[in-house]
From TrEMBL, chains A, B:
Protein name: GntR family transcriptional regulator
Domain (HTH gntR-type) ranges: 10-78
InterPro entries linked: Bact_HTH_transcr_reg, Chorismate_lyase_/UTRA_dom_sf, Tscrpt_reg_HTH_GntR, UTRA, WH-like_DNA-bd_sf, WH_DNA-bd_sf
Pfam families: GntR, UTRA
This protein's UniProt keywords: DNA-binding, Transcription, Transcription regulation
SMART domains: HTH_GNTR, UTRA
PANTHER family registered for this protein in UniProt: MANNOSYL-D-GLYCERATE TRANSPORT/METABOLISM SYSTEM REPRESSOR MNGR-RELATED
DNA sequence: CAGTGGTCTAGACCACCAT
DNA sequence: TGGTGGTCTAGACCACTGG
């Protein structure tokens, strides 16, 4: 294939996708320009059309290009989607945006799982979890309180970490705990007493909440987390298209 | 192919995907069970492995099954992802969850676009937009205030609609305006005076905000909307995996 | 080691768009 | 009507998992 796309390792279609992403975000085809034909691109990269289409599918999902039968692909924008890993790890995310992450472990206890944890972590009632509460900071400023529950198998590893450890997901990966899938639910919730104390906000004031259940590659839950962000500190962004959507909106019970 | 999957129209891989989705959510393989081999499934449906893999890719994106080299696919859960159309249209969404949607047009004006609208709708400075403010209700209860701006081309159609029209996207589709891509940003924002009045909440209280830019199949913006939800009424849900992610988290400017 | 999903190829035909 | 992306096929080889 063309020399400019040999830079990184991994499957061919990913290298092609990265090269195309670079070309698009650098403006080679203009802000709303047309891409060359699939046949032309395949010839250029010296790959089959199937492989090229795998590459384009990535850019399609990221919202970088359109795709429509009968017409050439059009540049949609310069979306900068984060990797799965960056989305899960506060530490990796912070560093990827050039900010210095900080963490303060407020508490870490081992106790029987409550009913919500049993359901989310698929545990038998009575099983034990490790429940951690951490304050997260960006450049020293409090941003988020993280309530995370781990099943015993995972939690025992977390418990061995030093109190001032910044990244936990790194450590877990070293012990063979891989995160593969996550389901996120985003809404608004009032601050409880602990949130208020750690974040220096009024009790009952609104926080942006992200609830997240992460599973490994076998579908076994490895983490259940409720992250409470101070308003105005972060926003969540999702791309969506006729071709693929993993986003939905839920009605919550009226109280 | 097998008779049970001839029900719907459309491409073969979609019909296979829907049949498999049905099989999985009905529990045929168990809550965390293994799927048959790709080869077996392809034989069962009498399709090529490539087509079968297209079907499985859909279920993968929806978070229904895992996929990992060397092992069979495992049932992850029974995620119920909404269609793109349901995600965009309040009316379609409400009906899909069995609730009766209502709408009250608060104002609809034609005026020059402000700087944010120019950027979001890719308009020349000075171009005109139609700006609508609508109160949305579920079963008669106020849920959300929608601030939507349309470029003139689209807005002139919206302006022709009766004041009590519930669904606008239906009408636009009839006039050849198709929604193809959307970018969503979700965060928390204080209620302004108008929000407070329409939603009967205190001014300055927190609302869940969804900002959305929708484009047609040529990448041309057709809608820019800021939806302000009362806390506790809705939540947004996204699935995410090592294989594909269209989700990211942004830091907002500190004020 | 055998089984399984991941990657890649080469070619065919079709549906849709613009002209 | 010609160009383009969407769909589908048949086959090959590889990387990884698990016994």
């Amino acid at each position: 294939m063309a020399p400019e796309s040999d830079r990184t390792a991994g499957p061919l279609y990913r290298r092609v996708a990265e090269d195309l992403r670079q070309a698009i975000t650098s403006g080679r085809y203009g802000p709303a320009g047309q891409l060359p034909t699939e046949a032309e691109l395949a010839r250029h990269y010296d790959v089959s059309r199937g492989t090229l289409r795998q590459a384009l599918a990535i850019l399609r999902t990221d919202g970088l290009v359109t795709s429509r039968r009968g017409t050439r692909r059009v540049v949609l924008g310069t979306a900068r989607v984060q990797s799965f890993s960056e989305m899960l790890s506060f530490t990796q995310w912070a560093r990827s945006i050039g900010q210095e992450p900080g963490g303060l472990l407020h508490s870490l206890v081992r106790r029987p799982a409550d009913s919500i944890e049993c359901e989310q972590l698929r545990l038998e009632s009575g099983a034990e979890v490790y429940a951690a509460v951490r304050l997260r900071t960006l450049a020293g400023t409090p941003v988020m309180v993280e309530h995370t529950s781990y099943p015993a198998r995972v939690g025992s590893l977390v418990a061995e970490l030093p109190f001032d450890a910044v990244s936990h997901s790194d450590k877990l990966r070293q012990h063979g705990i891989y995160f593969a899938d996550a389901q996120h639910v985003i809404d608004v919730v009032p601050a409880d007493a602990r949130d208020a104390k750690l974040l220096s906000c009024r009790r009952g004031s609104s926080l942006l909440r992200e609830r997240r259940r992460t599973t490994d590659s076998n579908g076994i839950p490895v983490e259940w987390s409720q992250d409470h962000y101070l308003p105005g500190t972060v926003a969540f962004s999702v791309h969506n298209s006729h071709a693929s959507s993993s986003l939905s909106r839920h009605a919550r019970r009226s109280r």
